[in-house]
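Memo to structure team: turn this sequence into structure tokens by end of day. - J.P.
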Amino acid sequence: MPIYEYQCTECMHNFEYLVMGSSVPDNCPACGSISVNKQMSTCGFTSKGVSGETVASSAGTSSCSGCSSTNCSSCGSL
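Reply from structure team:
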């Protein structure tokens, strides 16, 4: 069962929701609003070379300059 990220359009609270079947969150856990949007999630990966060395990694990287977050939806610049 996947975990999706949502953002409340009323209070801008970001939260995760464990999806069972085709369920969606009923409301924002912070303010109770029913106006929530699914966010684009990022995934992390590590690629190893022939000798076992790390050749590529997306964990902890960001396309935003000066951002150290591992979750792009945390800054709200999507």
